[in-house]
Amino acid sequence: MTANPSTITSFILRVFAALIALEALATPAPAQTGIATVSPEPVVREFLRAFFAGDSAALHRVVDPHPGTSRLLAARARAPEEAAAIAEDAQAMRIEPVQEYRFEGKTLDALPPGSGWPVGTTARFMAPFRGSLLVVSTVRRQDGWKIDLRWWAAEVALMEREAPPPEDSPEFAARSLVAAMLDLDREAAAQFLVPGGPGGDIDRLFAGAPPYREPSGHLMALVAEMPIVEAGPDDYARMPSGRIVRGGATADTRLLVGIYGMFEMPFQLRRIDGRWRVEAEPYFAILNR
Questions:
Q1: Do residues 257 and 54 lie in contact, with contact meaning Cβ atoms separated by under 8 Å?
Q2: Which of 67, 120, 157, 276 could bridge 173 with an S-S bond, Cβ 3.0-4.6 Å?
Q3: pTM of the model as a whole
Q4: What is the pLDDT of residues 122-146, one digit of tens each?
Q5: Please, which residues bridge with residue 140 across strands?
């Protein structure tokens, strides 16, 4: 099945509107220095203007190139009046940080002195735009801030996929582990956990678990809809425990990074006896937010 650009746009709006809960409005903004002149926010505004106006040339200027994201940059004609309204909305919208500035996984509480944010710094924002709440990931490159569309592309891939991920895949292990945790099923979760040692502590995995399963099914739906990206060697993830892991795949290791609702949820996996298993982390610190 191939999705056309209008289908992609409507899908992104629908999924992100469903994923982002109202608690986003209460998320405190991390302290920043020089936000008016060096923030990614102008690039976020220009990206959303260009995306919804179908301005392909502008999109190519502000988007970090990655395989699989180019089809999100296709031009889609808009009437001049509609394009002008989109531009006005982009300038007027409120942008809130949902993940602080990070460099190599470490938090940057303030703008470093000298040349500005280091190349490779990342930040993530929530933007209520045209009736939807969108999560936009950004990364600092040599020529300025860029939009990282990998998670949006992963959303589209989920839409197009007609079957679950293969049972021998890292993605299947990560999603299955979180689903078992939400079911409060320790036995099922253990099947997807690195056995023994510091990475196989079931009590660590279930630290902070609620006494009862969430009844509405909303959290379980977020597991199915969570966009997951495989981290590359230039990517860093901060695990719920605070340890920092660098990406880059080997035959027996993977680092996956999902966005659960609006929050980053990384998974470090190891292949053991032919099966992918996840190293234990206190994921309920994310699931309970």
A1: no
A2: 276
A3: 0.84
A4: 999 999 888 788 999 999 999 999 9
A5: 145
